[in-house]
Each structure stands twice: as structure tokens, then as C-alpha cells.
């Protein structure tokens, strides 16, 4: 092997160490970006997120593919809700429907729409709970791509305010906002 070949191999190896394997879901987790990409997306990821030139990015992808034989590019699986967080992936704040616990989101409005659509009944008090979440693409993940991960500390639910007679309205959004603030979510939430 020539010196330049050796150098190239070292370079490829170095880029490869940016990723850790998630064999169960056949994803490579970028340690820097904390996202999980499929083998066939490595090149694009390096180009887009790390400014690697196309030629080099494709070489790294090929190099990684060689050691991940049989890994597919379109395994759309995601972990079940409530399990331990996937290593190396970003954990961010999410919310889910408090009634069915089966609707993950990042938007209060979305949960409220779901609540009405599913006929969960009158929204008394808080309709959401804050839960830690992950997705392969981080917090920008679309609703169906989000999954809930195990909490490390005790659940911090928002409290139901008793004695309110108004219809669902601003007061309830205030409670939700308060709840979100308490768990450190603050204003990034869509509360229209
Ligand atoms: Zn990255
Ligand atoms: Zn629900």
C-alpha cells in the first residue's frame, strides 16, 4: 500500500469515528450532531453538516458501508415509547396527550386538535404532559418520528386548577404555559 493510500485510509478511519453504531435500528449516530443516519445518508450528512467535499464524503460513506454490510438505507423503524434513550442521540423536551398517552408532539395545538378529534371529552385542566423525547433527526423530527424515552427524574405534571368554570380558553393555556415553564420549556412552544 502506498503512502498516499495509507493516508487516505487513516483519514477515512478518522471520519468513521464520528459515528457510533446503533445496530438494532441500523443507524449511525453522528456524535457531533446527535442524529442518526442510515448508511446511505452518510455522504450527504458529511457534506451538509460537516462541510466535507463531495468526493471525500462519498469515500467515507463507501468505507463505512464496507464495515456495515447488510445494513439497509430505508429501515424506518423507531424505538418503542418509554424505553431507555438511544445512545448518542439528542434528548429533547416533548409533550404527549395526557389522556391516551399515545400521541407525541412538540406542539400544544396539535395535541389539542388530537384531543378533539379522538373525542377524549371535555378538556379539564391540563391536556398534556411533558416527556423527554428523541427522533433520528433530533428535535426537528416530525410528529410520527418522535418517541418518548424513559424519564430520569420523577414526573413533573402540570396541575389541574380546580374551580374554574370558564370554557376551555386562555386560562387553560396559561396553565399549560406555566407547566411548560416549570419544566423549562418556556416559549418555544406553539401556543396559538
Ligand atoms: Zn454530524
Ligand atoms: Zn389522546
What would you note in describing this structure?
By secondary structure, the chain is α+β, with helices and mostly antiparallel strands. The protein folds into two domains: 3-66, no CATH class; 92-188, no CATH class. Helices cover 31% and strands 15% of the residues. The chain is built from five helices and seven strands; from the N terminus they run αβββααββαββα. The strands form two sheets. Strands 5-4-6-7 form a four-stranded antiparallel β-sheet. The chain is elongated, with a radius of gyration of 21 Å. The model is unreliable at 154-169 and 187-192 (pLDDT under 50). It binds zinc ion (2 copies).
Key terms:
four-stranded antiparallel sheet, alpha+beta, binds zinc ion, single chain, 15% strand, 192 residues, 7 strands
Number of helices: 5
Largest sheet: 4 strands, antiparallel
The counted number of beta strands is 7
The kinds of small molecule bound in this structure are: zinc ion
Into how many domains do the coordinates divide? 2
Strand order of the largest sheet: 5-4-6-7
Name the overall outline.
elongated
Write down the secondary-structure element order: HEEEHHEEHEEH
Name the structural class. alpha+beta
Report the uncertain regions. Answer: 154-169, 187-192
Average pLDDT score: 84
Evaluate the radius of gyration.
21 Å
Q: How far apart are the first and last residues' alpha carbons, in Å?
A: 63 Å
Residues in helices, as a percent range: 25-40%
Q: Strand fraction band?
A: 5-15%
Pfam family, one: OrsD
Amino acid at each position: 500500500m502506498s503512502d498516499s493510500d495509507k493516508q487516505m485510509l487513516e483519514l477515512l478511519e478518522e471520519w468513521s469515528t464520528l459515528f457510533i453504531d446503533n445496530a438494532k435500528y441500523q443507524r449511525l449516530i453522528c456524535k457531533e450532531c446527535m442524529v442518526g443516519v442510515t448508511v446511505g445518508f452518510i455522504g450527504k450528512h458529511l457534506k451538509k453538516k460537516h462541510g466535507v467535499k463531495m468526493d471525500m464524503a462519498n469515500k467515507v460513506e463507501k468505507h463505512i458501508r464496507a464495515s456495515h454490510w447488510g445494513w439497509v438505507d430505508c429501515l424506518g423503524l423507531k424505538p418503542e415509547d418509554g424505553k431507555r434513550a438511544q445512545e448518542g442521540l439528542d434528548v429533547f423536551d416533548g409533550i404527549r396527550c395526557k389522556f391516551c398517552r399515545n400521541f407525541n408532539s412538540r406542539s400544544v395545538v396539535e395535541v389539542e386538535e388530537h384531543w378533539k378529534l379522538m373525542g377524549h371529552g371535555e378538556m379539564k385542566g391540563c391536556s398534556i404532559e411533558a416527556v423527554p423525547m428523541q427522533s433520528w433527526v433530533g428535535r426537528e423530527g416530525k410528529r410520527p418520528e418522535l418517541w418518548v424515552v424513559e424519564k430520569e427524574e420523577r414526573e413533573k405534571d402540570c396541575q389541574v386548577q380546580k374551580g374554574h368554570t370558564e370554557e376551555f380558553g386562555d386560562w387553560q393555556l396559561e396553565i399549560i404555559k406555566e407547566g411548560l415553564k416549570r419544566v423549562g420549556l418556556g416559549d418555544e412552544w406553539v401556543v396559538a
